Hints:
The structure holds two protein chains of two kinds. Chain A contains 19 helices and 20 strands. Chain A is about 35% helix and about 15% strand. Chain A is globular, with a radius of gyration of 25 Å. Chain A is of the alpha/beta class. The N and C termini of chain B lie far apart (about 65 Å). The interface between A and B is medium-sized, with 35 and 35 residues.
Amino acid sequence: MDKVNVTINGITVNVPKDYTVLMAAREAGIDIPTLCYLKDINEIAACRVCVVEVDVKGVPMRNLPASCVLQVQDGMSVRTNTPKVRNAVRMNVELILANHNRECLTCMRNGTCELQKLCDELGIDDIEFQGAKREAKIDNLSYSIVRDSSKCILCGRCVSACRDVQGIGILDFTKRGFKTEVAPAFDFSMKDVPCVYCGQCIQACPVAALRERSYIDDVWDAIDDPEKFVVVQTAPAVRASLGEEFGYPVGTDVTGKMVAALKRLGFDKVFDTNFSADLTILEEGTELLSRVTNGGKLPMITSCSPGWIRYCELNYPEFLENLSTCKSPQQMFGAIVKSYYAEKEGIDPSKIVSVSVMPCTSKKTEANRPEMEVDGYRDVDYSLTTRELGDMIKRARISFTKLPDEHTDSILGDYTGAGAIFGATGGVMEAALRTVADILTGKDLESIEYSAVRGIEGVKEASVVLPIGGVDTEVKIAVAHGTANASKVLESVKSGEKQYHFIEVMACPGGCVHGGGQSHVSAKARLDVNPKVSRANALYELDRSLPLRKSHKNPEVMKLYEDYLKEPNGHLSHKLLHTHYVKRDSYIVEQEEEFAKMLEKLDR
Amino acid sequence: MKIFRSHVLVCGGTGCSSSNSALIKQRFEEKIKELKLDEEVQVVATGCFGLCEEGPVVIIYPEGSFYARMTVERVDEICEEHLLKGRIVRKYLFDESAREEKIKPLSEVEFYKKQKRVALRNCGVINPEDISEYIARDGYMALGKVLTEMTPTEVIQLVKDSGLKGRGGAGFSTGMKWSFAAPNQADQKYVICNADEGDPGAFMDRSVLEGDPHAVLEAMAIAGYAIGATKGFIYVRAEYPIAVHRLEIAIKQAKETGLLGKNLFNTGFDFDIEIRLGAGAFVCGEETALMQSIEGKRGMSRNKPPFPANKGLWGKPTIINNVETLANVPQIILNGPDWFKSFGTAKSPGTKVFALGGKINNTGLVEVPMGTSLREVIYDIGGGCPNNKEFKAVQTGGPSGGCLTKDHLDIPIDYDNLTAVGSMMGSGGMIVMDEDNCMVDIARFFLDFTVDESCGKCTPCREGTKRMLEILDKITEGKGTMEDLAKLEKLAVNIKETSLCGLGQTAPNPVLSTLKYFRDEYEAHVLEKRCPAGVCQSLLKYIITMDCKGCTKCARICPVGAIEGKVKEVHVINQDKCIKCGACMDACTFHAIIKK
């Protein structure tokens, strides 16, 4: 790439010519403030907080351009610290603040809010231009996501994340002028639109305009109720992010401290979703083998990610039969807790409260799907995000960083490396291959790291030769993460361009490690660290450190089969661990009258 | 072609159509048939004549008789007298035409005398729904000429040489724009005609499309040939149903005639045009937002660069030209750059169409050479302010422009001159204001428009204009302070300098220019709590003068009992109680109540 010389505040840097002024300034050690900018996702120059003074070869540029999109040119001279720039930046931030619900002290993003941080950095001590605020409302009707338009600063980051990254586009700018809002079409609730609740919008949101629906209070109530036996499971990806809530670098594995904290919070038993991830592999691996040998529907597609399941139900109903019938590890765990565990421990299942901690916001909706229960007992009663767990630990005044490492409880707490890597894109596929290959070859294979399915490329393809029915067969696999990539893979299968045996899909880019429930990483921090990569590395590290790395070697899972389920895909498995899917329509309003009212409102 | 001895041209533009010109035309046809003149007299619906104030307009040729403010009732008499007996019906003529003994034909009326019609040359002359009438006026000859005799490079050079600048507002060289798109390699390029005319009170583009749609189609094909595009889009407001209808007819006829479509003039050049309707968002006139809208997305501006010539519609090289700009192109090709440069000024050659509105006698559409002074347009053509009121200001450039004063009346109109004094050419709206207009209120009006019409993307335009509007509201309500004036300026400067697109960058102009030239009016509102023009309701005072006869009518009608006084004595209004409804003033038989 050709390089050009640019001067930033008198410091000359030599940078590639496709650099923006913002990036070039970083090279010069100048941190230009930004707000709407989210690298590679939202580069729309809307907030006008990153404006700078520029001249090119001595000729001043008209007005103050936005450095986030302004490409460098040879001989460009940029000034970021002139009175003109300082005043402009300050005024634009003040204008945003004037139309923002500034209840910072009671806001759930207090401390992680990028706008708050910016105000601090800019030393904003007064808002000169105050006036009317945009009409605002709170939509908290879905199980997963709360949209609070009074906090929205119209940066468009969620719009780009939903539309461009995920290929869904349920959020967009609506109305115009001062009345402009970011909202679903026709002001529908998030409950009624084809949202998959992946929460990538929450990850993109710099403020608290989009956030998870919190179940913290329900969980406290359960813990405080002496009649209840409260068990908790934590998903594989949670441990790679929870530490960030307490100042650890992005992607630090804090499993031991997390377990210790959960015990101190008062959960009666602390288990691990990694356990049911191993269990999932046995069920799903068996299902795959059965489909391949018995001429079942192929390609089989994983069903661990509820965002992905909802996406498929909404957009690709023709692939519903391709979905593995396995419940997700979260739901499998819940079903086992209230059956096998209850029976073993002699606890009345109606007294058990099953709590999950997930990197995910879609899990909240999944837990509330009507079919996710056995004999009237809900598999999972409350699903919390990583962030909510962090909040609970803080509220309980537990000094997280000083906690000792502790171990999960038996008999649902053991896990292998295969379960641990479930949280990263490609992890389910790799775990499944480890088990399936052993079963088919009848050996305990030593080569178990499938690097082709690791990493953050959008769609990964590989093939593995495995003896099926005694014949060496090339098993073709694909891994997609992010719903836009999932759509690409499905389209290529639909058109006949590609044939696969097994496809892994995770709804979030990077997989669960970058789920909508994970700790917030600011736009600025993301310039230096990629949470998808760092957190996945933590999981692969954990995998390598474990003595057992194949799901079928998990002693507690094996015991579960021996004592209770008998065999994978058996009768009891089907009752407890498998489910079904339905084609879903979107933008449905139950009463026509309501719709008419809505249209009338729009007319006004 | 059939020859007629007389032609009755009935204006079919939007203005006259809304005052029933279609019924007038229909009655002419019926009556002419009754009189068995239908073999001799032809009735034609044309585009706009320009003098909308006097509509519905009917012109009868060969005499060029200008019948103004026509009604259906007058048709029979005109048919019997004028068409049958050859006696012009003087009493129905446009006032000026009949003022002197010798009847003035249309062409000699003051309103038309100073005009030079290039973009509007066919408006009010031909039947826009008949391609043969356009062809008869040299239509599609320019296209034939470029396709058969010129290379694309020569076409671009010719347009560059003419000095034609974009008539949509910014005034960028049309030839340059084309030359940026031409060298870009792409499997598809596009030509877009921007007909999303959104300035309040502006209707230049509408009139061209209604009166001469083929000129625009022809120019688009020429532009397509010049830059290597085979596809064109006309982005036109859905609120222009007549223009859309005539464009549809024109495209259909051009295709049937082989002047659009495949292999034009047997040269192998293909060009096709589609219409896209805008849903009425002002920002969609901004080119990047316009392209988003054509792509089916929400119309929101985006950062430039990339410019459309490099990455435009669907990422392909695209040129976007305004209707009026395009309407000039065929004439430039046919008559050459020197002919075009013979009008106007050195830096801004050619003519410009203006929509005259507001406090002016001859509301309507005028086309004058660049360099004509504001005075000539407003007084000589426009006839000055009605009711002998004093001229106060003229607003040019719509919501992006500014207000100019009587000190600017002798400025020759061109892009640079208007910008230099804090306004802009804009698309050609020209709103005249007299002593009864409050300049703070005018600034408030335009800002109110931008607050609603900002696309909502960038902070300064979306939030800043609203804060400005709130301050103006405060001032017009008499609650403003001198600090507010300072705040207003501060906001205005920031919005100008940091907004994303042209809409925001120019939105503060109406405020900045009025602050500059009419600061005393702002100060009167702030310091004296007085609206000098008597417009701002909150600042008005109703006062009873010595003309009061003490009839007590006002005191009885006042809904809040604010008027006191004895019979046959001068009454007094209690200002603390008065709600300024004006009922007393309406009721007073002796005109003894005034507001100020």
